Amino acid sequence: MNSVRAVIAGCALLAVGLILGGWLLGSEIKDVRLADRYVTVRGLAERNVTADLAIWPLSFREAGNDLQSTFAKSEQDRATVLAFLAAQHIPQEDITLGQPGVTDTQANDYSSARTPNRYIVQQAVTVRSHNVKQVAAAVQQTSALVAKGVVLGGSPQYGQPNSVSYVYTELNSIKPAMITEATRNARTAAERFAQDSGSKVGTIRQASQGLFSISSADSTGEGGGYNGAAQSNGSILQKVRVVTTIQYYLQQ
Fold first, then answer.
1. What's the CA gap between 84 and 141, in Å, rounded?
2. Residue 81 φ/ψ region, left for φ over 0, alpha for ψ in the -120 to 50 degree band, beta for the rest
3. Is the whole-model pTM more than 0.85?
């Protein structure tokens, strides 16, 4: 009799264990399914800023068959460029003189091509100024150099002929506020989605900060992505942009 009671009690305990285990397993599956409920949103933040640094390389060249006279002409061109910058009220401390470069077009013994001028002398004067408006005004007057016989040419350091670059250097000072704004905008988008779907926004599942980009203020593109402290382009008025991507859990 005792053995029969023991068997019955064991079966009862087994049944209770199966019921309890099934309830716990169902609860875990429910939690897992709820954990899979999330929404991915993006938050955008933009700021219009003014460049605070101008970098303007002025390169010029002379060509001839006599090295001494060609170099002398190049030195005259440099004096003309410096006089032009002084007339534009560019201070001397904002001007850097580059080292002259000389190319002998006949130095290559394996080249059969012969140019009219054997020597090419190229120099560069670079303006680096925080008075961007002053530099922008001077750029508009470069035709005066051409009128005086200065042959403006491409600068190997910057790739484009005498192009001025405007730089915004204070990006780090506005980064935290822009990230906060982008994150707030992302949550607003998530709350709007949750409201439409009958859910509530929970905690963050995953988040990633996009790259900061700077482009011309009147540009519709995003510009180049980067996380550095400064980026240059050809416009004084610039737009800083960042996009954050965040996943939020959705709760019933």
1. 9
2. alpha
3. no
